[in-house]
Write a structure and sequence with these properties.
Number of helices: 12
Order of helices and strands: HHHHHHHHEHHHEH
Helix content: 40-55%
Largest sheet: 2 strands, antiparallel
C-alpha cells in the first residue's frame, strides 16, 4: 500500500514493489535515490519499506511515550471484517458521540495511479524555493491550498487494483517481518500466526 502510494506521488520511481524492496540497502547508503529527493526536502527514509512496515516496533516506540490505556490499536483484519464495530470502538475510546450516518463499507482512499506521469511531475514535488514561495503566498492570502493543483490531481488520477505478490517474495517478506509480528502478538496479547500463511 505504501509503495503504491509513493509511486502515485512520484516519490518512488520504481513501480515494481519487489525491485523497490531490493533497492532499500543501496538507497540507505545514498545511492539510486530519486532525483527530486535531492532537490527538495523529501527524505529517503520514505523508501525504507522494511523499517516503516515494522508495526510492532513502531507501536513499541509509541508505548514508550504513552501508556497503553491511552492508545487505541485496531488490527486491520478487524476493521475489514467488522467496520461498524471498529468505528463505534473508536467513538467510545474517544468519548465522543456516535455518528450513525456512515457508510461503513465505502472504500476511502482507494489505490490510484497517474494517467500521465509527466503531468504529476509538473506539479509534484515542487522544488524547495518554489514550495517556500507557494507556502508564503498561501499564508499571505489566507488560503489553505491552491484548488487548481487538487483539480489537476483529480483529473489525472485513476483507480487501479494492486497485483498479487508472488509466492517466493511473500516468503521473503514473512521472514523479514517474523520477529516484528511476534513482538506485536506480545503487545496485543493476540495470536497473529495467520499472518505467516503464504498460501
Amino acid at each position: 500500500s505504501l509503495h503504491n502510494r509513493l509511486v502515485y506521488s512520484q516519490d518512488e520511481p520504481e513501480p515494481d514493489f519487489q525491485k523497490a524492496w531490493n533497492l532499500q540497502d543501496v538507497r540507505k547508503s545514498g545511492s539510486q535515490m530519486p532525483n527530486h529527493m535531492i532537490t527538495t526536502d523529501r527524505t529517503g527514509d520514505l523508501l525504507q519499506y522494511r523499517q516503516i512496515g515494522k508495526i510492532g516496533f513502531q507501536i513499541e516506540r509509541l508505548l514508550d511515550i504513552f501508556p497503553f490505556q491511552n492508545v487505541k490499536i485496531i488490527v486491520f483484519d478487524d476493521f475489514i471484517s467488522q467496520p461498524r464495530k471498529s468505528y463505534f470502538d473508536i467513538f467510545n475510546f474517544l468519548s465522543v458521540p456516535h455518528v450513525n450516518n456512515i457508510d461503513y463499507f465505502l472504500k476511502a482512499n482507494p489505490n490510484r495511479n497517474n494517467r500521465m506521469n509527466w503531468i504529476r511531475n509538473i506539479v509534484h514535488p515542487l522544488p524547495k524555493p518554489i514550495k517556500n514561495l507557494a507556502n508564503f503566498t498561501k499564508k499571505t492570502m489566507g488560503i489553505r491550498s491552491f484548488g487548481f493543483i487538487k483539480l489537476i490531481d483529480k483529473l489525472n488520477s485513476k483507480k487501479i487494483s494492486r497485483g498479487p505478490i508472488n509466492q517466493t517474495f511473500r516468503l521473503v517478506l514473512v521472514d523479514q517481518f517474523k520477529d516484528d509480528i511476534e513482538k506485536l502478538e506480545k503487545i496485543l496479547n493476540r495470536d497473529l500466526s495467520h499472518w505467516f500463511n503464504v498460501t
